[in-house]
Design a protein that fits this description.
The protein has 14 helices and 24 strands. The protein is an alpha+beta fold. The strands form eight sheets. It has a four-stranded antiparallel β-sheet.
Protein backbone atom coordinates (compact mmCIF):
# COMPACT_ATOMS: atom_id res chain seq x y z
CA UNK A 1 0.00 0.00 0.00
CA UNK A 2 1.21 3.54 -0.70
CA UNK A 3 3.05 5.09 2.23
CA UNK A 4 3.32 1.74 4.07
CA UNK A 5 6.55 -0.15 4.77
CA UNK A 6 6.78 -3.84 5.41
CA UNK A 7 8.50 -5.49 8.36
CA UNK A 8 10.39 -7.69 5.87
CA UNK A 9 11.24 -7.67 2.16
CA UNK A 10 9.11 -9.99 0.09
CA UNK A 11 12.04 -10.37 -2.33
CA UNK A 12 15.52 -10.08 -0.83
CA UNK A 13 17.66 -7.56 -2.74
CA UNK A 14 14.72 -6.01 -4.60
CA UNK A 15 15.52 -2.39 -5.64
CA UNK A 16 12.47 -1.20 -3.71
CA UNK A 17 14.22 -2.03 -0.41
CA UNK A 18 17.85 -1.27 -1.43
CA UNK A 19 19.56 0.95 1.09
CA UNK A 20 16.86 0.37 3.75
CA UNK A 21 16.90 -1.77 6.85
CA UNK A 22 14.70 -4.30 5.02
CA UNK A 23 17.25 -4.95 2.23
CA UNK A 24 18.55 -8.19 3.79
CA UNK A 25 15.48 -9.20 5.74
CA UNK A 26 13.48 -11.59 3.54
CA UNK A 27 10.02 -12.69 4.58
CA UNK A 28 9.75 -16.39 5.35
CA UNK A 29 7.74 -18.23 2.70
CA UNK A 30 4.14 -18.84 3.63
CA UNK A 31 2.99 -22.45 3.55
CA UNK A 32 -0.39 -24.02 4.09
CA UNK A 33 1.32 -26.74 6.13
CA UNK A 34 2.35 -24.27 8.82
CA UNK A 35 -1.13 -22.83 9.03
CA UNK A 36 -2.74 -26.24 9.28
CA UNK A 37 -0.37 -27.39 12.00
CA UNK A 38 -0.72 -24.34 14.20
CA UNK A 39 -4.51 -24.18 14.06
CA UNK A 40 -4.98 -27.65 15.50
CA UNK A 41 -5.77 -27.65 19.22
CA UNK A 42 -6.53 -30.46 21.63
CA UNK A 43 -6.92 -30.71 25.40
CA UNK A 44 -5.62 -32.63 28.41
CA UNK A 45 -6.33 -32.73 32.14
CA UNK A 46 -3.47 -32.35 34.63
CA UNK A 47 -3.88 -33.25 38.32
CA UNK A 48 -0.86 -31.88 40.17
CA UNK A 49 -1.13 -33.67 43.52
CA UNK A 50 -1.85 -37.02 41.88
CA UNK A 51 0.87 -36.60 39.24
CA UNK A 52 -1.61 -37.68 36.55
CA UNK A 53 -2.29 -36.40 33.04
CA UNK A 54 -5.37 -37.63 31.14
CA UNK A 55 -6.07 -37.19 27.46
CA UNK A 56 -5.77 -36.06 24.78
CA UNK A 57 -9.39 -34.99 24.19
CA UNK A 58 -10.71 -33.47 20.97
CA UNK A 59 -12.72 -30.72 22.65
CA UNK A 60 -12.46 -28.48 25.69
CA UNK A 61 -15.89 -29.73 26.73
CA UNK A 62 -14.70 -33.34 26.73
CA UNK A 63 -11.68 -32.41 28.85
CA UNK A 64 -13.86 -30.38 31.20
CA UNK A 65 -16.14 -33.36 31.75
CA UNK A 66 -13.15 -35.46 32.81
CA UNK A 67 -11.79 -32.63 35.00
CA UNK A 68 -15.14 -32.38 36.78
CA UNK A 69 -15.12 -36.01 37.82
CA UNK A 70 -13.12 -34.78 40.80
CA UNK A 71 -13.46 -31.72 43.00
CA UNK A 72 -10.63 -29.21 42.83
CA UNK A 73 -9.04 -28.01 46.07
CA UNK A 74 -5.66 -27.32 47.64
CA UNK A 75 -5.14 -31.05 48.01
CA UNK A 76 -6.20 -31.75 44.42
CA UNK A 77 -4.93 -28.98 42.18
CA UNK A 78 -6.09 -29.60 38.64
CA UNK A 79 -6.79 -27.89 35.35
CA UNK A 80 -7.36 -28.34 31.62
CA UNK A 81 -4.34 -27.69 29.37
CA UNK A 82 -5.01 -26.36 25.88
CA UNK A 83 -2.43 -27.99 23.59
CA UNK A 84 -1.04 -27.28 20.15
CA UNK A 85 2.08 -28.19 18.20
CA UNK A 86 3.92 -25.60 20.31
CA UNK A 87 2.89 -27.27 23.55
CA UNK A 88 0.58 -26.14 26.33
CA UNK A 89 -0.87 -22.63 26.13
CA UNK A 90 0.81 -20.53 28.80
CA UNK A 91 -2.40 -19.05 30.19
CA UNK A 92 -5.14 -21.61 31.01
CA UNK A 93 -7.71 -19.09 32.19
CA UNK A 94 -9.40 -19.54 28.80
CA UNK A 95 -9.36 -22.96 27.09
CA UNK A 96 -11.16 -23.60 23.83
CA UNK A 97 -12.94 -20.29 24.30
CA UNK A 98 -14.34 -21.39 27.69
CA UNK A 99 -13.72 -19.49 30.92
CA UNK A 100 -11.77 -22.00 33.00
CA UNK A 101 -10.53 -19.16 35.19
CA UNK A 102 -14.10 -18.64 36.38
CA UNK A 103 -13.90 -21.93 38.28
CA UNK A 104 -17.02 -23.74 39.45
CA UNK A 105 -19.18 -20.73 38.63
CA UNK A 106 -18.18 -21.21 34.99
CA UNK A 107 -18.51 -24.99 35.11
CA UNK A 108 -14.86 -25.91 35.83
CA UNK A 109 -13.69 -27.75 38.96
CA UNK A 110 -10.21 -26.32 38.37
CA UNK A 111 -7.93 -25.37 41.22
CA UNK A 112 -4.58 -23.63 41.24
CA UNK A 113 -3.06 -21.46 43.95
CA UNK A 114 -0.80 -19.30 41.81
CA UNK A 115 1.23 -19.12 38.61
CA UNK A 116 3.87 -21.62 39.80
CA UNK A 117 1.04 -24.17 40.15
CA UNK A 118 -0.11 -23.37 36.61
CA UNK A 119 3.44 -23.64 35.26
CA UNK A 120 3.85 -26.98 37.03
CA UNK A 121 0.70 -28.42 35.44
CA UNK A 122 1.57 -27.04 32.01
CA UNK A 123 4.93 -28.82 32.34
CA UNK A 124 3.10 -32.02 33.24
CA UNK A 125 1.07 -31.79 30.01
CA UNK A 126 4.18 -31.00 27.95
CA UNK A 127 6.09 -33.96 29.39
CA UNK A 128 3.26 -36.47 28.93
CA UNK A 129 3.89 -37.98 25.49
CA UNK A 130 0.31 -38.86 24.47
CA UNK A 131 -0.86 -35.40 25.52
CA UNK A 132 2.08 -33.54 23.98
CA UNK A 133 1.89 -35.39 20.67
CA UNK A 134 -1.91 -35.73 20.49
CA UNK A 135 -1.66 -39.44 19.93
CA UNK A 136 -3.83 -42.36 20.92
CA UNK A 137 -2.51 -44.96 23.34
CA UNK A 138 -2.93 -48.72 23.44
CA UNK A 139 -2.63 -51.32 26.18
CA UNK A 140 -0.86 -54.56 27.06
CA UNK A 141 -0.86 -56.97 30.01
CA UNK A 142 2.45 -57.94 31.65
CA UNK A 143 2.74 -60.89 34.03
CA UNK A 144 6.12 -60.69 35.76
CA UNK A 145 6.40 -64.15 37.31
CA UNK A 146 5.27 -65.87 34.11
CA UNK A 147 7.44 -63.71 31.86
CA UNK A 148 4.45 -63.13 29.60
CA UNK A 149 3.08 -60.10 27.75
CA UNK A 150 -0.34 -60.14 26.08
CA UNK A 151 -1.72 -57.63 23.62
CA UNK A 152 -1.87 -55.08 22.22
CA UNK A 153 -5.47 -54.11 23.04
CA UNK A 154 -7.27 -51.04 21.72
CA UNK A 155 -8.90 -50.12 25.04
CA UNK A 156 -8.03 -50.26 28.72
CA UNK A 157 -11.24 -52.22 29.31
CA UNK A 158 -10.14 -55.04 26.97
CA UNK A 159 -6.73 -55.21 28.64
CA UNK A 160 -8.35 -55.24 32.07
CA UNK A 161 -10.56 -58.17 31.04
CA UNK A 162 -7.46 -60.16 30.10
CA UNK A 163 -5.64 -59.09 33.27
CA UNK A 164 -8.58 -60.28 35.37
CA UNK A 165 -8.46 -63.79 33.94
CA UNK A 166 -5.91 -64.45 36.66
CA UNK A 167 -5.71 -63.35 40.29
CA UNK A 168 -2.86 -61.01 41.18
CA UNK A 169 -0.63 -61.88 44.14
CA UNK A 170 3.03 -61.99 45.17
CA UNK A 171 3.46 -65.12 43.09
CA UNK A 172 1.69 -63.60 40.07
CA UNK A 173 2.62 -59.94 39.80
CA UNK A 174 0.76 -58.41 36.88
CA UNK A 175 -0.49 -55.11 35.51
CA UNK A 176 -1.81 -53.28 32.45
CA UNK A 177 0.78 -51.15 30.60
CA UNK A 178 -0.48 -48.05 28.79
CA UNK A 179 1.62 -47.65 25.64
CA UNK A 180 2.49 -44.73 23.36
CA UNK A 181 5.01 -44.14 20.60
CA UNK A 182 7.61 -43.38 23.27
CA UNK A 183 6.96 -46.67 25.08
CA UNK A 184 5.14 -47.61 28.28
CA UNK A 185 3.90 -44.72 30.40
CA UNK A 186 5.97 -44.63 33.57
CA UNK A 187 3.12 -44.59 36.10
CA UNK A 188 0.51 -47.35 35.67
CA UNK A 189 -1.69 -46.30 38.59
CA UNK A 190 -4.03 -44.74 36.00
CA UNK A 191 -4.45 -46.44 32.60
CA UNK A 192 -6.87 -45.15 30.00
CA UNK A 193 -8.37 -42.93 32.70
CA UNK A 194 -9.15 -45.97 34.89
CA UNK A 195 -7.83 -46.38 38.44
CA UNK A 196 -5.62 -49.47 38.17
CA UNK A 197 -3.86 -48.43 41.37
CA UNK A 198 -7.11 -49.04 43.25
CA UNK A 199 -6.66 -52.79 42.67
CA UNK A 200 -9.57 -55.19 43.04
CA UNK A 201 -11.72 -52.49 44.62
CA UNK A 202 -11.46 -50.57 41.34
CA UNK A 203 -11.91 -53.67 39.18
CA UNK A 204 -8.23 -54.53 38.53
CA UNK A 205 -6.54 -57.79 39.62
CA UNK A 206 -3.20 -55.99 39.43
CA UNK A 207 -0.37 -56.76 41.80
CA UNK A 208 2.99 -55.10 42.27
CA UNK A 209 5.09 -54.86 45.40
CA UNK A 210 6.95 -51.64 44.65
CA UNK A 211 8.33 -49.39 41.91
CA UNK A 212 11.06 -51.86 40.84
CA UNK A 213 8.26 -54.36 40.08
CA UNK A 214 6.42 -51.71 38.07
CA UNK A 215 9.55 -50.77 36.13
CA UNK A 216 10.28 -54.43 35.46
CA UNK A 217 6.84 -54.95 33.92
CA UNK A 218 7.07 -51.70 31.93
CA UNK A 219 10.37 -53.00 30.54
CA UNK A 220 8.64 -56.24 29.61
CA UNK A 221 6.04 -54.31 27.60
CA UNK A 222 8.72 -52.18 25.94
CA UNK A 223 10.75 -55.26 25.01
CA UNK A 224 7.80 -57.12 23.51
CA UNK A 225 7.73 -56.24 19.79
CA UNK A 226 4.00 -56.65 19.20
CA UNK A 227 3.14 -54.63 22.30
CA UNK A 228 5.80 -51.95 21.72
CA UNK A 229 4.79 -51.34 18.11
CA UNK A 230 1.03 -51.85 18.50
CA UNK A 231 1.04 -54.75 16.05
CA UNK A 232 -1.32 -57.71 16.15
CA UNK A 233 0.23 -61.17 16.27
CA UNK A 234 0.36 -63.47 13.28
CA UNK A 235 -2.37 -65.64 14.81
CA UNK A 236 -4.69 -62.70 15.21
CA UNK A 237 -3.97 -61.44 11.71
CA UNK A 238 -4.82 -64.76 10.09
CA UNK A 239 -8.16 -65.00 11.87
CA UNK A 240 -9.52 -61.57 10.92
CA UNK A 241 -12.00 -63.22 8.50
CA UNK A 242 -13.87 -64.20 11.69
CA UNK A 243 -14.71 -62.06 14.68
CA UNK A 244 -16.84 -62.49 17.78
CA UNK A 245 -19.63 -60.78 19.72
CA UNK A 246 -21.47 -61.42 23.00
CA UNK A 247 -25.28 -61.49 23.00
CA UNK A 248 -27.30 -61.29 26.23
CA UNK A 249 -30.91 -62.20 25.43
CA UNK A 250 -32.69 -61.04 28.59
CA UNK A 251 -30.83 -57.73 28.63
CA UNK A 252 -31.27 -57.13 24.91
CA UNK A 253 -27.59 -56.21 24.56
CA UNK A 254 -24.80 -57.08 22.14
CA UNK A 255 -21.14 -56.33 22.92
CA UNK A 256 -18.25 -56.33 20.48
CA UNK A 257 -16.87 -57.01 17.95
CA UNK A 258 -13.80 -58.73 19.44
CA UNK A 259 -10.84 -59.99 17.44
CA UNK A 260 -10.59 -63.37 19.17
CA UNK A 261 -12.92 -65.90 20.78
CA UNK A 262 -10.86 -65.60 23.96
CA UNK A 263 -11.57 -61.88 24.25
CA UNK A 264 -15.30 -62.46 23.70
CA UNK A 265 -15.28 -65.26 26.27
CA UNK A 266 -13.72 -62.93 28.84
CA UNK A 267 -16.54 -60.44 28.32
CA UNK A 268 -19.18 -63.20 28.41
CA UNK A 269 -17.78 -64.43 31.72
CA UNK A 270 -18.18 -61.05 33.39
CA UNK A 271 -21.74 -62.20 34.08
CA UNK A 272 -23.12 -65.58 35.14
CA UNK A 273 -25.39 -67.34 32.68
CA UNK A 274 -28.76 -68.65 33.84
CA UNK A 275 -32.40 -68.79 32.79
CA UNK A 276 -32.76 -65.13 33.71
CA UNK A 277 -29.58 -64.16 31.86
CA UNK A 278 -29.30 -66.21 28.69
CA UNK A 279 -26.09 -65.34 26.87
CA UNK A 280 -23.56 -66.65 24.38
CA UNK A 281 -20.66 -65.79 22.07
CA UNK A 282 -21.53 -65.42 18.38
CA UNK A 283 -18.85 -66.29 15.83
CA UNK A 284 -19.23 -63.86 12.94
CA UNK A 285 -18.12 -63.89 9.31
CA UNK A 286 -18.93 -62.13 6.06
CA UNK A 287 -22.21 -64.06 5.82
CA UNK A 288 -23.25 -63.26 9.40
CA UNK A 289 -23.32 -65.29 12.60
CA UNK A 290 -22.53 -69.01 12.47
CA UNK A 291 -25.77 -70.90 13.00
CA UNK A 292 -24.28 -73.34 15.54
CA UNK A 293 -22.51 -71.65 18.49
CA UNK A 294 -21.48 -74.85 20.27
CA UNK A 295 -17.97 -74.28 18.88
CA UNK A 296 -16.62 -70.73 18.49
CA UNK A 297 -13.08 -70.02 17.34
CA UNK A 298 -12.28 -73.67 17.87
CA UNK A 299 -13.35 -73.48 21.55
CA UNK A 300 -16.07 -75.65 23.09
CA UNK A 301 -18.69 -73.09 24.13
CA UNK A 302 -21.29 -75.86 24.28
CA UNK A 303 -19.36 -77.36 27.21
CA UNK A 304 -20.49 -74.43 29.37
CA UNK A 305 -18.74 -73.58 32.62
CA UNK A 306 -16.83 -76.84 32.54
CA UNK A 307 -15.18 -75.64 29.33
CA UNK A 308 -14.70 -72.08 30.61
CA UNK A 309 -17.87 -70.48 29.15
CA UNK A 310 -20.63 -68.88 31.26
CA UNK A 311 -22.98 -69.40 28.32
CA UNK A 312 -26.66 -70.24 28.82
CA UNK A 313 -29.36 -71.14 26.34
CA UNK A 314 -32.42 -73.27 26.89
CA UNK A 315 -32.99 -74.53 23.36
CA UNK A 316 -32.48 -73.77 19.69
CA UNK A 317 -35.03 -70.92 19.60
CA UNK A 318 -32.93 -69.14 22.27
CA UNK A 319 -29.83 -69.69 20.12
CA UNK A 320 -31.62 -68.42 17.00
CA UNK A 321 -32.78 -65.29 18.86
CA UNK A 322 -29.26 -64.46 20.06
CA UNK A 323 -27.82 -65.18 16.61
CA UNK A 324 -30.37 -62.73 15.17
CA UNK A 325 -29.36 -60.14 17.80
CA UNK A 326 -25.75 -60.35 16.61
CA UNK A 327 -26.79 -60.10 12.97
CA UNK A 328 -28.99 -57.07 13.65
CA UNK A 329 -26.34 -55.16 15.60
CA UNK A 330 -24.46 -52.88 13.18
CA UNK A 331 -21.02 -52.79 14.84
CA UNK A 332 -21.12 -56.56 15.40
CA UNK A 333 -22.48 -57.47 11.94
CA UNK A 334 -20.00 -55.27 10.07
CA UNK A 335 -16.98 -55.82 12.34
CA UNK A 336 -16.70 -52.10 12.93
CA UNK A 337 -16.45 -51.19 16.60
CA UNK A 338 -18.39 -48.08 17.50
CA UNK A 339 -16.06 -45.28 18.51
CA UNK A 340 -16.58 -44.70 22.18
CA UNK A 341 -16.87 -40.99 23.04
CA UNK A 342 -14.98 -39.50 25.97
CA UNK A 343 -18.32 -38.51 27.56
CA UNK A 344 -21.84 -39.84 27.17
CA UNK A 345 -25.13 -39.64 29.07
CA UNK A 346 -27.82 -41.90 30.51
CA UNK A 347 -31.21 -41.34 32.15
CA UNK A 348 -31.91 -43.01 35.50
CA UNK A 349 -35.42 -43.35 36.94
CA UNK A 350 -35.19 -44.46 40.56
CA UNK A 351 -38.77 -45.49 41.29
CA UNK A 352 -39.01 -47.48 38.06
CA UNK A 353 -35.60 -49.10 38.50
CA UNK A 354 -34.83 -48.10 34.92
CA UNK A 355 -31.76 -46.81 33.11
CA UNK A 356 -32.04 -45.60 29.50
CA UNK A 357 -29.18 -44.96 27.14
CA UNK A 358 -26.34 -44.49 26.54
CA UNK A 359 -26.67 -41.35 24.43
CA UNK A 360 -23.76 -39.82 22.54
CA UNK A 361 -25.78 -36.66 21.96
CA UNK A 362 -26.62 -34.82 25.19
CA UNK A 363 -29.84 -33.37 23.79
CA UNK A 364 -31.13 -36.91 23.17
CA UNK A 365 -30.72 -37.71 26.87
CA UNK A 366 -32.43 -34.48 27.83
CA UNK A 367 -35.36 -35.25 25.53
CA UNK A 368 -35.78 -38.71 27.06
CA UNK A 369 -35.63 -37.30 30.60
CA UNK A 370 -38.30 -34.74 29.79
CA UNK A 371 -40.69 -37.31 28.35
CA UNK A 372 -41.80 -37.89 31.93
CA UNK A 373 -42.49 -35.48 34.75
CA UNK A 374 -40.20 -35.66 37.73
CA UNK A 375 -41.70 -35.85 41.22
CA UNK A 376 -41.35 -37.72 44.52
CA UNK A 377 -42.97 -40.75 42.89
CA UNK A 378 -40.73 -40.55 39.82
CA UNK A 379 -37.28 -39.47 40.86
CA UNK A 380 -35.10 -39.14 37.78
CA UNK A 381 -31.99 -37.47 36.42
CA UNK A 382 -29.32 -37.49 33.71
CA UNK A 383 -26.03 -39.24 34.59
CA UNK A 384 -22.91 -37.88 32.91
CA UNK A 385 -20.63 -40.82 32.13
CA UNK A 386 -16.96 -41.35 31.30
CA UNK A 387 -14.58 -44.31 31.52
CA UNK A 388 -14.32 -43.58 35.24
CA UNK A 389 -18.10 -43.95 35.73
CA UNK A 390 -20.88 -41.51 36.60
CA UNK A 391 -19.93 -37.96 37.53
CA UNK A 392 -20.58 -37.66 41.26
CA UNK A 393 -22.37 -34.29 41.10
CA UNK A 394 -25.15 -34.14 38.47
CA UNK A 395 -26.15 -30.53 39.12
CA UNK A 396 -24.08 -29.60 36.05
CA UNK A 397 -24.27 -31.96 33.06
CA UNK A 398 -22.62 -31.07 29.76
CA UNK A 399 -22.15 -27.61 31.24
CA UNK A 400 -25.90 -27.13 31.68
CA UNK A 401 -27.74 -26.49 34.94
CA UNK A 402 -29.69 -29.71 35.61
CA UNK A 403 -29.86 -28.67 39.24
CA UNK A 404 -32.09 -25.77 38.18
CA UNK A 405 -34.89 -28.25 37.42
CA UNK A 406 -37.82 -27.31 35.24
CA UNK A 407 -36.86 -23.65 35.27
CA UNK A 408 -33.64 -24.64 33.53
CA UNK A 409 -35.34 -27.09 31.16
CA UNK A 410 -34.85 -30.31 33.13
CA UNK A 411 -37.65 -32.51 34.55
CA UNK A 412 -35.19 -33.92 37.05
CA UNK A 413 -36.23 -34.80 40.60
CA UNK A 414 -34.19 -35.87 43.59
CA UNK A 415 -34.84 -35.32 47.26
CA UNK A 416 -31.21 -35.20 48.39
CA UNK A 417 -27.79 -36.71 47.95
CA UNK A 418 -29.09 -40.14 48.95
CA UNK A 419 -31.26 -40.22 45.84
CA UNK A 420 -28.48 -38.78 43.65
CA UNK A 421 -26.04 -41.43 44.83
CA UNK A 422 -28.66 -44.14 44.27
CA UNK A 423 -29.25 -43.07 40.67
CA UNK A 424 -25.52 -42.71 39.97
CA UNK A 425 -25.14 -46.28 41.23
CA UNK A 426 -27.92 -47.37 38.89
CA UNK A 427 -26.04 -45.89 35.93
CA UNK A 428 -22.76 -47.46 37.05
CA UNK A 429 -24.48 -50.81 37.57
CA UNK A 430 -26.09 -50.88 34.13
CA UNK A 431 -23.62 -52.51 31.71
CA UNK A 432 -24.97 -50.74 28.63
CA UNK A 433 -24.72 -47.35 30.28
CA UNK A 434 -21.44 -48.01 32.10
CA UNK A 435 -19.59 -49.40 29.07
CA UNK A 436 -21.27 -47.35 26.34
CA UNK A 437 -22.93 -50.34 24.74
CA UNK A 438 -25.52 -48.90 22.38
CA UNK A 439 -27.40 -52.15 21.87
Amino acid sequence: MRGKWPVCALIEGHPRWKGTEYEAKPCPPSTTTTTTTTTSHWYCVARKNKGVVEGPFLSAEGARNVLNQQGGNSGNQQMVCEMSSAGASADPHTVGGLNQGGGTGAGFNKWWGNWPDIHHMNDMCNKHAPCKNNEATWFCVARKNRGAVEGPFATAEEARNVLNQQGGNSGNQQMVCEMASTGALADPHTVGGLNQGGGTGAGFNKWWGNWPDIRHMNDMCNSHAYCRNNEVTTTTTTTTSHWYCVARKNRGSVEGPFQTAEQAKNVLNQQAGNSGNQQMVCEMGASGANSDPHTVGGLNQGGGTGAGFNKWWGNWPDIHQMTAMCNNNGPCRNNKPEVKPSTWWCVARKNRGQVQGPYKNFNDAKTVLNQQGGNSGNQQMICEMTNAGAKSDPHQVNGQNQGGGRGAGFNKWWGGWGEINHMNNMCNGNSNCRNYNTR
